[in-house]
Structures are given as C-alpha cells and as structure tokens.
Specification:
This protein is of the alpha+beta class and 285 residues long. It has helices at 103-121, 194-206, 267-278, and strands spanning 12-13, 28-33, 36-40, 48-49, 62-69, 72-78, 89-93, 133-134, 141-142, 149-150, 155-164, 167-173, 184-187, 209-221, 226-237, 247-254. The radius of gyration is 22 Å and the shape is globular. The structure holds zinc ion.
C-alpha cells in the first residue's frame, strides 16, 4: 500500500537528558492553543517560531521539549484559550493545516498538541494526588511521593480493508457525515493482539468472517492520541449484519460504485485509493 504517513515525526530526534529551555535564537517553538496551533502567516506559513512566544507578547501556560531538528531544539508552548494573537499570526486546527505547511511541520503540530495535552492532564498523581514531576531522561512524569510514573497516552486502533472479488467492505458509522462510508476500524482492547482486534471489529460491526489478514502500514493519528495500524484482508464467509449501534449500514462496493469516502490525509482513504488502483488478489473470491 502506498501511504505517506503525514503525522510521523521522522525528522525529529529526541536527545536525553532533554535540554532545559534554550534562549532564542537557539531554539524553535510551536505554540499550542486548545487543540490547535498558532501559524505565522508571512513570508511563508510556518508553525515554527524562532523566539520564545513571550517575546511576541504571548503568555505561556506550560512548555514541553519535543526533540531536535538537526541541532536545533524544538519546544511546544501552550497559551491560554482566549489569548489574542499578534497581528501576523492566526490560529488553526491541525488537520486544516494539511497542504499549507510542509508535512514535517504538520507532524510536529500533531505531536505538539499531543505532548501539551499529556502535560495538561498529568499534573497530579492518579494514585496519591501529589504534584507530578517531569523527568528529563525520558518522556514521562513521576510522582515524588509514591513513585507512580505516567507516560503520554497512546491508543492503538486497527483499520482494515476487506476484499471480496471485485468489491470492498465499507461501513457507515453513526457519527459520520450523512452518506459517508469508511472502512471497519476500532480501538485495540487490553489483552488482545492486533490480528484478533481486526477479526473482532469486522465481526462486531458487520457480522462477517475474514481471512488472509496482512499488515498494510501504520500512522500516528494525533486526534487526540491514536496510532492507526492498517490491514488488508479477504472475505471468508457470513452475511452482512451491521451492529445497528456503532454501524448503521454496511455493504460491498465496487470500484465504479463507491459511496462518499473519507477525505485525503486519512489512512482509510489511502487504503481505499490503493485498492481502487490495484487491490484485488487474483485468487480472491
Ligand atoms: Zn503519587
């Protein structure tokens, strides 16, 4: 499958112990507000600020080390939700930035929102209530009173393209826009492996059995903290019975009769586009 993972921060290296905040001009800053980031609009749109946000008049709630781009340390800084922005800057959701800034920055924006979220939601120990302390030797926090350690939350989720001769299985979920179909997907549950999760989700959402489950790629999906793991599989038996709760309808669709599908950028769309081009196995039923 040809999929370019846009939210994979491959260009970033994490150096530990992480550096204390480096004063300008030695560092770059990604400014986070709510679930989005601040974009400097000219000369070219960028989310990387070459000075501390405070020097542009922005009050910083919290900051986190993200990693290094080459020899340049990069930090995320959060500003209050209602804060006005300097004239040359605008607020944007992360997804909306796709295509307007380099992919490397898009991935950084997703990471910055996630790591600021980690800092925001782990201020106190979940075991004893003490204030948590940031570690500088790994991306984690530890409670000074009881030793409880917190890492950024990562939620693995599977997505699967199921083939049946010249058709593909698509489902319409309850929360999707009207008419929008996508592939079977769902979170991995504690205690199960990925292939089990694939079989279970397909059975739960559509009632069919599948075979030939094979790995097709993965992508961080920071909305808010998923890791999408993609698979391709073949139909093995059973009639379609949508579960009626999560999935309101499900069916087989041919290439020349596809319903409304998810927008570009998503791994679901990449899988569908790949299948439309060349996804049928000669031996598939
Ligand atoms: Zn504690």
């Amino acid at each position: 499958m040809k999929h370019i993972p846009r939210f994979s921060t491959d260009s970033l290296s994490r150096n530990y112990p992480e550096p204390e905040e480096v004063p300008a001009p030695g560092a770059r800053w990604v400014v986070v507000r709510d679930m989005g980031v601040v974009v400097t609009t000219s000369p070219a749109p960028t989310i990387l600020l070459d000075r501390h946000p405070a020097s542009s008049g922005m009050a910083v709630n919290r900051s986190q080390y993200l990693g290094h781009l080459g020899s340049t340390p990069v930090y995320a800084a959060e500003i209050p939700g209602a804060a006005p922005l300097p004239g040359s800057m605008v607020y944007s959701g992360v997804r909306e930035l796709s295509g307007t800034i380099p992919d490397e920055e898009l991935a950084l924006a997703g990471l910055a929102v996630q790591i600021i979220g980690f800092d925001r939601t782990t201020r106190f120990c979940g075991v004893c209530g003490e204030g948590m302390r940031q570690l500088r030797t790994e991306r984690a926090k530890r409670c000074p009173a009881c030793g409880h350690t917190e890492y950024p939350r990562l939620s693995p989720a599977i997505i699967v393209l199921v083939r049946n001769a010249d058709s593909v299985l698509m489902v319409q979920s309850k929360q999707a826009p009207a008419g929008r179909h996508s592939l079977v997907a769902g979170f991995v549950e504690p205690g199960e492996d990925l292939v089990h999760a694939v079989h279970r989700e397909v059975m739960e959402e559509t009632g069919i059995r599948i075979t030939n489950v094979s790995y097709a790629g993965s992508e961080p999906w920071p909305f808010p903290n998923s890791l999408m793991i993609a698979f391709v599989a073949d139909y093995d038996g059973g009639g379609i019975e949508p579960d009626g709760t999560e999935v309101v309808s499900a069916g087989w669709f041919r290439r020349d009769n596809l319903p409304s599908v998810p927008p570009k950028l998503s791994i679901a769309r990449s899988l569908i586009d790949w299948w439309v081009e060349n996804g049928t196995r000669p031996d598939s039923r």
